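Researcher: I need the complex structure. Ligand is adenosine monophosphate. Inputs:
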Amino acid sequence: MARYIILLGPPGAGKGTQAKRLSEKLGIPHVSTGDMFRAMKTQDTPLAKRVQAIMASGGLVPDEVTVEMVEDRLSQADAAGGVILDGFPRNLFQAEALDALLEKSFGGQVNEALLFEVPFEVTMQRIMSRATKEGRSDDTFETALRRYRVYLESTAPLVGYYYANGLLKRVDGVGTIDEVTTHLMDVVGALNGQ
Ligand code: AMP
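Model: Output:
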């Protein structure tokens, strides 16, 4: 049975880093819509330029574009056993689109939503230190603030959505990378009945 796991949490919560580790442990791919959009940077198409401008501002790429991209990715052979979704869904529309898509095209459903809980100050510190280390152009202070606000307005309501569906699991996202991995594996291990 394919397993679809969603990672929720504010920007800078460590979802990408932890998703890679979880992907290795579970043997299913890490699908990051942010990484996919960043990869469009090298493309010289009108859509790629629009996506770049939106990312630089900290806003969200239109749902239609995003959902279609995810649908394509989930159709690839390596996703047959499920995926870890990082950065998607980002709002209620995308969450409902994902549910419909999984049911209709993949005979599956979201199995768990893992919420990385990190205070505002910690997320801002992490984003700013990532900006220095990785030089990501969407990691300026202004953009980080806007992304946090977009998270609160658009993405945070998903916590209630998945909680109501009985799928929400909380992960303490504070600590070193290894410490957070331990918190994460405790939660996932419990889900696997280990
Ligand atoms: P992330 O790496 O997940 O923080 O995403 C970086 C940026 O990519 C976001 O600030 C958005 O501009 C865009 N993005 C990523 N995922 C989505 C999504 N599911 N819906 C809309 N925009 C997204």
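Model: Summary of the prediction. The CA atoms of residues 32 and 86 lie 5 Å apart.
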